[in-house]
Amino acid sequence: MGTGYTYKCGCKDPSPIMLGRGMLYANICRETWNDILNGEYGPGWARAARMHPEGGLDCENTLYLCECGHWEVDTRKTMWEKGNADHSKSNLPRNRALKKSRHKCPECGGRMRVAKLEEDTLRCPVCSEVMTDLMPTIKWD
User: Fold this and answer.
1) How far is CA 109 from CA 79, 91, 104, in A?
2) Number of independent structural domains in the chain
3) CA 63 to CA 65: how far, in whole Å?
4) 3-class SS of residue 137
5) Per the confidence metrics, is the pTM higher than 0.90?
6) 17/137 Cα distance (integer angstroms)
7) How far are the Cα atoms of 1, 38, 41, 69 from residue 140, in angstroms, in the given order?
8) How would you list the strands of the sheet with 97-100, edge to edge?
């Protein structure tokens, strides 16, 4: 399940921010797992996947924020020790993270972090005004 957020700024028609996961989540995790095994995420990720073929992935849409103020929605990629048959993240107890992706800011090259919608200030990428009244307005699957 995912959540879409809308906000107020100087734009007449701002785009929603779509976070979470939908019905294609299992397919995305499976495809990403195959990409990892094929070396598309580097040798460290491929080695971890081969050492833990039962591993799982967290591939949900996440909001990332940089110190420079740039933000973007990107797929979180965390490899877990144990997963489901489709390699999606499992809620098994004592499941530990093996690898976590790092998100590099395309604007300044800095390291981005997961944004906290309740605490962080986001600026509209179109009009640069502070986005206010960020509210969940849609649930998607």
Assistant:
1) 24, 34, 6
2) 1
3) 7
4) strand
5) no
6) 10
7) 6, 31, 29, 27
8) 56-58, 78-80, 97-100
Q: Are 75 and 85 in contact (CB under 8 A)?
A: no
In the numeric block, the tokens 């294609």 are attached to 24
- Beta strands 71-75 and 61-65, pairing class: antiparallel
Domain that holds residue 29: 2-140
Distance CA 58, CA 94 (A): 16
* Tokens read off for 94: 């004592």
CA distances from 13 to 92, 128, 130, 138 (A): 42, 14, 15, 16
Report residue 117's pLDDT band, with 50, 70 and 90 as the boundaries.
confident
pLDDT (mean) for 39-64: 92
Distance CA(20)–CA(66), nearest Å, equals 20
